[in-house]
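[step 3/7] inverse_fold.run input=structure_tokens len=209
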């Protein structure tokens, strides 16, 4: 029984990590032109704008993310984690392709994950979105006053997976993601919880803790 539970926990963790890394992969393609299917032309929008969408919002009050980039687990205190969703334990993947990913988990392995990705900031996200991309791309959001986009290359929101990308600096995006199972009351509508998690992390960044 213990081995089976450990195996289940491992599968959930891999799913959580892969989901956030997939989003990070979208960000990391910044600077590369993309070809629209059925169109031989490539798209290389300039920074601050998207080829087919709204202008990229700029960060008016940039936050210092340096101390958390290698260990984003510090973005939540234990008290914040418990208040958010009774999150009790952390797991750090320091070798993820887009940068270290921290996952906070409850006793049922529902989780919230964080990653800080340095590069072109939200410009990377806007630049690499195409109108016919799968998943979702919902700009015009904010978290604690910072510009944000709900975006992912797949849409798992009805099953408890949501991703919010927040521009905490013009060159850093904080990616906050969820994987919530049937034991979570937020599974059917995970994005509000993800936004709360992002806002809690921003409070930590503002405090410089």
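[step 3/7] decode complete -> sequence:
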């Amino acid at each position: 029984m213990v081995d089976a539970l450990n195996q289940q926990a491992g599968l959930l963790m891999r799913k959580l990590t892969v989901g956030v890394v997939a989003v990070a992969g979208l960000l990391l393609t910044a600077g590369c032109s993309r070809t629209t299917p059925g169109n031989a032309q490539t798209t290389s929008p300039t920074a601050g704008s998207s080829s087919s969408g709204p202008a990229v919002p700029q960060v008016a009050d940039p936050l210092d993310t340096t101390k958390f980039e290698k260990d984003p687990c510090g973005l939540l205190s234990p008290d914040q984690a418990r208040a958010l969703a009774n999150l009790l334990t952390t797991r750090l993947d320091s070798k993820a392709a887009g940068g270290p990913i921290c996952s906070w988990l409850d006793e049922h392995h529902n989780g919230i994950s964080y990653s800080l990705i340095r590069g072109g900031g939200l410009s990377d996200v806007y630049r690499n979105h195409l109108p016919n991309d799968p998943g979702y791309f919902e700009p015009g959001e904010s978290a604690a006053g910072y510009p944000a986009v709900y975006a992912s290359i797949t849409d798992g929101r009805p099953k408890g997976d949501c991703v919010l990308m927040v521009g905490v600096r013009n060159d850093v995006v904080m990616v906050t993601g969820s994987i919530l199972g049937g034991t979570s009351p937020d599974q059917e509508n995970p994005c509000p919880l993800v936004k709360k998690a992002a806002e809690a992390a921003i409070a930590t960044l503002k405090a410089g803790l």
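[step 4/7] annotate
Residues 1-14, 27-52 have pLDDT under 50 and may be disordered.
DSSP finds five helices and nine strands in the chain.
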